[in-house]
Amino acid sequence: MALITFARRRPWWLAGAAAVLALAVAAVVLVAVRSGGDDAPGEGSADVGFARDMAIHHQQAVELSFIVRDRTDDEDVRRLAYDVINTQANQRGMLLGWLEAWDVPKSSQKTPMSWMHHGSMSMPMYEAHDGSLMPGMATNTQMNQLRKAEGKAAEVLYLRLLTAHHKGGIEMSKAAADMAEDAKVRRLAEGMVQGQESEMKLMADMLAERGATA
Hints:
The two termini are 30 Å apart. It is built from 6 helices and no strands. The protein is an all-alpha fold.
């Protein structure tokens, strides 16, 4: 599965810092988890499926945030974008580190989020379209719209796209919190739910300040 490319206009020092942070976290996680041995989650587990899918999901949230930092001078939006970049790059490093430690591939040909359907086949499968691989993810068209927007228009579009993105991420995280075998995965998933719900409330207020809704 091809990785999403970060926005070309992002500040080089911030991109480098996020990349170094993610690699450092992955290295620490790798050393810490490799002692798990035979208890490590295997292929087909909710743990592995969640780690793969959320790493991709987080990658786009980071990209959205890099884009909007170049499209507005509003300090509140830029501060939110920085928080998302920092938090989700960190978490993505943990997820990739776990996959390495569990000795499973970091990508799969399986349908994204298919691990969530175990024991609940009534849940409809999501059909990817226009670059949107999972519920809540922005399409290629929406990403391009954000790259072209400026000022308030960019702020509103970013807040709307990130709100939808968080909704999809929360759905996935709640499933992982219930289904994952590894306590570390469950704790991270629970933390993601709490953090993203808090950010959604903040974004609702920020949209209202701009005369818009999600």
